[in-house]
Every structure is written in structure tokens, then in C-alpha cells.
Amino acid sequence: MKLYVSPTSPYARLACIMCLEARLGGLEIVILDPWQNPPDLVRHNPAGRVPALVLDEGDSARVITESLLIADFAARRSGEAERLWFQNEAQHELGGVCLGIIDAAAAIMAGRMVTSGSASDTAFDSSPIAARRQGAMRRSLDRLEQLVAAQADALKARPGIAAFLPVVVIEYLRMRFGEAFDSPDHPHIAALVSALRERPTLAATRPLFTTFTPIGMASGQ
Questions:
Q1: What residues are paired with 29 via a beta bridge?
Q2: From edge to edge, which strands make up the β-sheet containing 63-65?
Q3: How do beta strands 2-5 and 52-54 pair?
Q4: Burial class (CB in 10 A: 0-12, 13-18, 19+), 211
Q5: Is the peptide bond prior to 51 cis by the omega test (within 30 degrees of 0)?
Q6: What would the pLDDT profile of 23-44 be if each residue is shown by its tens digit?
Q7: Which domains occur in the chain, in start order?
Q8: Coil vs helix vs strand at 102
Q9: Beta bridge partner(s), residue 63
């Protein structure tokens, strides 16, 4: 079983975290740059995107793509689906807000690439399109703060996808935008990130990781 990821993609990171939390047997994590259209990635996923989870070998290998589908597969295979997957409607709402923030940030990165060919060139960020995405991100972070505040104890007590997503969001924003989206008005988000960021599956997949060492986690760690 192979999981193709990049060292910067928040979508790939979410899939990676969930596969590690599920302790999928025989999992190999392949780190690559999807912008280079690696032949192995394109062969398994014609869209040329990460994440992609290859379940078996050979020409007829089954492949699961898209982060939520991989996360769902991992949760169901784990024997801990009750912990790992969304527990209620409030967690579903939280997940949707987080994915919306990721989508908006990724759209800005795509705009940078189209404009200048570099994700670090911020010329695109002053465009009306980028401004709209930035506004969406700020409003969504305000909403995320409310949702995390209402569920903080439950998210920390039994960490699953709804707890991992805010960490993925904040650490991706910090990697791409520095402190531009940090706010003292979001103390509950900050507390959740602080509580979970050193969890082994999160620490090992922090943005820009370029090597990977398999994680042995005791139950409940």
C-alpha cells in the first residue's frame, strides 16, 4: 500500500495523518512534487494530484484519491472509526469550514503559480480574486473559533479528523502566509493547535517534511 503525498499539501497531510492514525498495515509514504508530474503519480492518478492511495500493485491496482475519501477509508479500516471520523453535525460543520479555508488558501497558491510560476511570489495576492479568498479565510477562521470553542473538550479528549483539521489549517496558513492570519481573537483555535501539534502523527507530517520515519504509536497516544 502506497500513499503519495507532497511535503506542502494540506490535503495530502490530512490523508497521511488519518492513514497513520489508522495504523494501516504495510503503508509506504512516497513524498514527491506533484507539479513535476511524476510518472508514478500520474499513472495512478490521471489528475496528477496528491493524495493518492494505491491499495495494491500491478496494472489493475486499486487507487483511492481525494483527501476525504482516503480519510474515510482509513477510519473504516482502523477499527477506531468511532474516534477517527466525524462524530456529529457540529463536527461536520467544523470540517466543512476547515476545508473551505484550505480551498481558499490553495486557490491563492494556484493563482501565484499561474501569475509568476512561483508559490512564494506574492504579486497575485493584491488581485481582486485573491482579496475575495482572503476575506473568506478571515470570516471562516472567525466561525472556526466559535465551533472549536463549543467543542474544545471533546476534540481534545478523543482526537479524530475534526480535531486534526484545525491543526492542518493553521500550520498550512503559517507556512504560506506567515502570521497574516493569526489573531488574538482565536484563543480556542490556538489552544487546540498547541495541545495537538506534537502528537506523533501531526509532528511527523508538519509542512515541509521531506523524510518520513514510520511511527509506532501505543493505543490511545
A1: 3
A2: 28-31, 2-5, 52-54, 63-65
A3: antiparallel
A4: exposed
A5: yes
A6: 998 899 999 999 899 999 999 9
A7: 2-81 (3.40.30.10), 84-199 (1.20.1050.10)
A8: helix
A9: 54
